[in-house]
Design a protein that fits this description.
This protein is mainly α. Helices cover 57% and strands 0% of the residues. It is built from 10 helices and no strands. The longest helix has 22 residues. The radius of gyration is 19 Å and the shape is globular. The chain starts with 21 loop residues before the first helix and ends in an 11-residue tail after the last helix.
Length: 196
């Protein structure tokens, strides 16, 4: 990057340009690409041998990024999304203990917790898009309890889910079971008062 040969072009692809050193960013021409449609993401996943149903569901939760879905195992993604939907349906019926049971079922590994959080984030983002009038968001995929949350509650849940996901990816993650249980038990139960 310091002194490329004359006439050469270097293509640097980054999902988090802000994480690159300022000296590198200052030498770059940034080109932003829009998100793919859910159908395009699902097609990429099917070409990578994902089952059709898992590809459709993962695409709806991947926010237009095939890389988000491809970074995970298709079967694990499907199982996790189905499990998160089931616990949200249990919470909708008032079964608060289902959040702790779900968290206990995650075990000690971070991978399943991260995929489950990605599913929750995807469902919550879809709920926010539906709330904002984006008909393409797919209202049918949004669990009922999330449809009934107010805008501030959706914002709070999304913020907390993203923060929990960030912390689980970090060097010193919190207790996986406790973090997910606390997050899920707060769904529809008021909130921390945090605003968007």
């Amino acid at each position: 990057l310091e002194e490329p040969p004359p006439g050469s072009v270097i293509v640097l692809v980054a999902t988090r340009p802000g994480a690159l050193p300022a000296t590198v960013r200052s030498r770059c021409q940034q080109v932003f690409f829009g998100a793919l449609s859910d159908e395009e993401v699902a097609e990429v996943l099917r070409r990578n041998r994902w089952p059709a149903q898992a590809a459709r569901q993962a695409a709806a939760l991947a926010e237009g990024s095939p890389g988000v879905a491809l970074g995970r195992d298709g079967k694990l993604w499907q199982e996790s999304a189905d499990a998160v939907r089931a616990v949200l349906e249990s919470l909708e019926r008032g079964e608060r203990e289902s959040a702790m049971a779900f968290s206990e079922g995650l075990g000690e590994g971070r991978e399943r917790a991260l995929v489950s959080l990605q599913a929750l984030i995807g469902f919550t983002r879809a709920a926010a898009r539906v709330r904002l009038g984006d008909g393409a968001a797919g209202e049918a995929m949004v669990p009922g309890i999330l449809k009934r949350l107010g805008t501030e509650e959706i914002c709070r849940l999304l913020g907390e889910a993203l923060e929990t996901h960030r912390r689980l990816e970090g060097d010193r993650p919190p207790n996986v079971k406790l973090a997910v249980a606390l997050l899920l038990s707060g769904v529809g139960a008021g909130g921390s008062g945090r605003r968007c």
